[in-house]
Amino acid sequence: MKLSDDEVQKVKAVWQQVISQKDEASKYFYDRLFTIAPEIKPLFKLDGVRQRSLLMDILNLMATRADRINEIEETFVNLGIRHVKYGAEEKYYPVVRDVLMDVFDKFAPNDLDDSTKQIWTKLHGHVSKIMISQLSN
Ligand code: HEM
User: Fold this and answer.
1) Would the CB of 88 count as within 6 Å of ligand 1?
2) How many folded domains does the chain comprise?
3) How does pLDDT run across 26-41, given as a tens digit for each residue?
4) Which of 2, 18, 34, 72 is deepest in the core (most CB within 10 A)?
5) Model confidence, pTM
6) What pLDDT is attached to residue 137?
7) Are 120 and 14 in contact (CB under 8 A)?
8) Dihedral in degrees, nearest 10, Cα atoms 45, 100, 118, 3
């Protein structure tokens, strides 16, 4: 996957807004996720603080390396392998995507136009595809 310079800038602009409010944003993410899909809550064993921090770290990596995402493919292969062990089913990847877009909508409303939403969706889709492919390996 290759994003244009303009697309990379848009990804980063949204992310700057969100990371500057990382505690509230990551809390909101899990609140939304467990409201929409309460049945997956038992799969999450880490304490909330650690969980939120790891989520923000990986999103930060996706945003800051958006211009060279192919160079860190192995990170997502390994993340996907761990997700097989966590019991993360394929059907929940779109749920995570929608929740992420809700977070962006709430915490970066001025930077999130339709085209920016599409670019983040593409980036998330790329990462999800790599992770999901580990389910059949
Ligand atoms: C692109 C999509 C996703 C990303 C980037 C992502 C990212 C992460 C990260 C960074 C962790 C921290 C632990 C680690 O690095 O192994 C994690 C843990 C976890 N994720 Fe995901 N995830 C995604 C999708 C999903 C989906 C669809 C599910 C469905 C149930 C899920 C369930 C879990 C669970 C159960 C844990 C274990 C946390 C714990 O034990 O508390 N994830 N995820």
Assistant:
1) yes
2) 1
3) 999 999 999 999 999 9
4) 18
5) 0.96
6) 75
7) yes
8) -60
CA-based angle 27:31:37, to the nearest 5?
140
81 lines ligand 1 (CB under 6 A): no
Distance 102 CA to ligand 1 centre (A): 17
Question: Which amino acid does the sequence have at 103?
Answer: V
pLDDT tens string 59-90: 999 999 999 999 999 999 999 999 999 999 99
For residue 74, CA distances in Å to 77, 117, 130 come to 5, 25, 9
Give dist(CA 60, CA 54) in Å, integer: 10
Can you read off the two tokens belonging to residue 125?
């889709």
Burial label for 85, CB within 10 Å (0-12, 13-18, 19+), is exposed
Ligand 1, atom 15: closest residue by C-alpha: 79
The residue contributing the CA closest to ligand 1 atom 43 is 55
Nearest C-alpha neighbor of 104 from the set 12, 38, 37, 9: 12
Q: CATH code at 27? A: 1.10.490.10
Domain containing residue 36: 5-136
